[in-house]
Amino acid sequence: MIQLVYLVPLLPLIGFLIIGFFGKKLSNSIVGIIGSGAILGAFVVSLMIFLELNSQPLKSVTVDLFSWISAGNLSIPFSFLIDPLSSLFLLIITGIGFLIHLYSVGYMSHDEGFSRFFAYLNLFVFFMLLLVLGSNYLIMFVGWEGVGLCSYLLIGFWFKNTAYNNAAKKAFVMNRIGDLGFLLGIILIFVTFGSINYEEVFSVAITNHPNTPVITAITLLLFVGAMGKSAQLPLFTWLPDAMAGPTPVSALIHAATMVTAGIYMVARSNILYTLAPFSMEVVAVVGACTALFAATIGLAQNDIKKVLAYSTVSQLGYMFIALGVGAYTGAVFHVMTHAFFKALLFLGAGSVIHAMSNEQDIRKMGGLKSKIPITHITFLIGTLAIVGFPGFSGFFSKDEILAHAYEHNKLLWFLGVLGAAMTTFYMFRLYFLTFYGKFRGTHDQEHHLHESPKSMTIPLIVLAVLSIVGGFVGIPEVLGGSNLLEEFLKPVFESSSFYLPHHMEHDTEMMLMGIAVSVMVIAMCYAYVVYVKKNTLPAKEGEELKPAHKLIYNKYWVDEIYETIITKPLNFISEALYKIVDNQIVDGIVNGTGSIVNKLSGGVRYLQNGNIGVYIFLMVISIIAIIATRMF
Amino acid sequence: MSAIEVIPVDRYILLSTILFTIGVLGVLYRRNAIIIFMCIELMLNAVNLLLVAFSSFLSDSKGQVFVFFIMAVAAAEVAVGLAILMMVYRNSKSTDIDDLNKLKG
Q: Cβ-count burial of A590 within 10 angstroms (0-12 exposed, 13-18 middle, 19+ buried)?
């Protein structure tokens, strides 16, 4: 079965080709069946691969498909690497991908670009699978660029809106900045190790211990790529803007899968990172700063999707904290649980938006609890999962990350707990404002309120169940579990764990858990008091705000700062280059050459007047001239 | 001494120069294609005359052989040239060279 792994990316590719070429001629239901069916097929194959990998002793299989690039001493096979890490990602991508495809059938049913949407979505899944399956950095890079392209296409899906197009362009450009770092990292890997195959690079790295500065440079460059893709400081501003795309896109690409590509890449290169302690520190610090920074912004946002977007940025920060302190399993665990509950929250938000006739402002919602019960219950489960309510999936993964952070550095842990408290507050703020209180929308919207169709609620229910039970694969020992996930992923991170000692007192772990839970409960109660008991509403547009509130409401003016210190000078330079160098110098040379030829030929063309008499006269004159020169 | 050498050589040069000049001027000033054609023949024959004269004075027969070649080529040229002129006339009902400017851009 493992040899059939090529089917996993092939099915979405075929789906994309069929829908892309013939989508306009097919009816919406057939497009939906092909699009979702392709992903379902890929999921079934992934599941069989996962089961087979679990049952066999060999934990890392390379499937060679064909020789891809072979030039001089560079030889890159097109081959897939199946190991616990990639097979887990396969399950997440195809599983959640299928649920979101199913959801999109209902959500996008009235959209004129229905088939285009499914074509892009299938193409995205294809590239994402390529990214996690590749057995070398180049295939990963191809997938990496491909998902960036699909992200661009899907953010700007409603391309008639200029603001959406700008958001798409912003995402693309920011990702390009990161991609440059990633590409340079790959080149440096090739120069250093003479290969870009994971196995060769890692085995050389373990045995030879190449000098640390080079490894540090490589890992930092790779991390720049991860910063772009996974929306970390300072390249995070594209992700909130990416919410311009349809909600299923936000759920699939900008929450569950694509943005975790950076985590996957760092986890995949864990050996290199372990050998470069400085890079690990950088990763952890950037992660912690992002987690906290995005959480504070999330406190004051009023757009339901924007809140979730900042919480995604913040959760990605937690994953990077985990990577930075060497808790690779914790990071992957959080990727998985986050994929469940964040996809659930986004799809729930989509369901709310659908019910509210495309209203996204939580100030105009309220009291939806009884109107859309299934969405309400599932959204509540997602909220409890993300804030880390004991028993829900987010609790276990976040706890694992915080425990490792504590072990590594108390300050990191403190920042993490602070971020978690804010997460709890803004998530419950979102939840209470949306589902409690009185309805604040227009009369029309109230009239149209309705629960979403089955194709939308079923994925919600499935994801809600996963958000509850998803954490049980990683119950820590202290709570009487046996961390199944850690056991499963062990072969991938084995060589790094050799360098990173892990041991923790059970009492300390219990204490940390207790602190995290009590902080969470306090934040939850505070949100309840503010938004349910006192019925406070966020300030209206244009109202005077307190300085601190104003600061986070305007997202620390990060966009404006980038605009001032990067965009404006760049624009100024380009403008100057355009007006002076291009218009005056380059155009001057080109046009000057043209006009000189034009003028000269304008003079000469009078000779070619078609009058034979003149020609003969000139001929005679010329002959006389030739003879005359000969004679004298 | 042959009959040619009765007249001094400078007269021959003078005559051919006059004939040649008449030919050149005819080509330059006349508009009728046939007359231009005849003027070209006149120039050729002026040269022929000179060649024969020099050949005789220098007792070298190469010049006369050359004349035969010129006459043969001239005959061929006339055959082609007149054929072209015929076609031109049939098409444009005129042999005026000023009318032959259809190819002008």
A: exposed
Query: Does residue B105 fall inside a structural domain?
Result: no
Which of A391, A381, A403, A382 shows the shortest CA–CA distance to A471?
A: A391
* B34 touches A: beta carbon within 8 Å: no
Q: Are residues A435 and A509 in the same domain?
A: yes
pLDDT tens profile A11-70: 889 989 988 888 788 888 888 888 889 999 999 998 888 888 888 877 788 888 888 888
pLDDT at residue number B96: 85
Show residues of chain A in contact with B104, CB under 8 Å.
Answer: 608-610
Q: Would an 8 Å CB–CB cutoff place B17 in contact with chain A?
A: no
Q: Which residues span the domain enclosing B63? A: 3-94
Instruction: State whether A536 and A502 are in the same domain.
Output: yes
pLDDT tens digit sequence for A97-146 = 998 888 888 888 888 888 888 889 899 999 999 899 888 888 899 999 99
Residues of A in contact with B105 (CB under 8 A): 608
Q: Which domain holds residue A490?
A: 341-553
Please indicate whether, in this complex, the C-beta atoms of B27 and A616 are within 8 angstroms of each other.
yes
In a domain? residue A123: no
Identity of the residue numbered A230: S
User: CA-CA-CA-CA torsion for A463, A467, A469, A473, nearest 10 degrees?
Assistant: 110
- Asked whether the beta carbons of residue B103 and residue A620 sit closer than 8 angstroms, the reply is no
